[in-house]
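A reminder from the course coordinator: this example appears on the midterm review sheet, so study it carefully.

Given structure:
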């Protein structure tokens, strides 16, 4: 899978939909707007995880799910 929706990223990070939108709007998480929705590339999501670590354990769990 090349792209993730805001909902998918929210679920992977265990944060709210609006939390993901906050990161997109503050330019911490790169995303492309397609119509009224945002899509996040696998690479941009991986970069976000590396730059904005909350806890190593949580990131390892997400990276394992994504095979990064």
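Designed residues:
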């Amino acid at each position: 899978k090349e792209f993730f929706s805001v909902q998918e990223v929210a679920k992977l990070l265990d944060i709210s939909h609006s939390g993901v939108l906050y990161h997109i709007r503050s330019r911490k998480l790169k995303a492309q707007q397609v119509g009224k929705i945002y899509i996040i590339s696998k690479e941009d999501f991986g970069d976000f995880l590396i730059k904005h670590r909350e806890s190593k354990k949580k990131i390892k769990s997400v990276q394992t799910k994504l095979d990064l």
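The chain has four helices and three strands. The radius of gyration is 11 Å.
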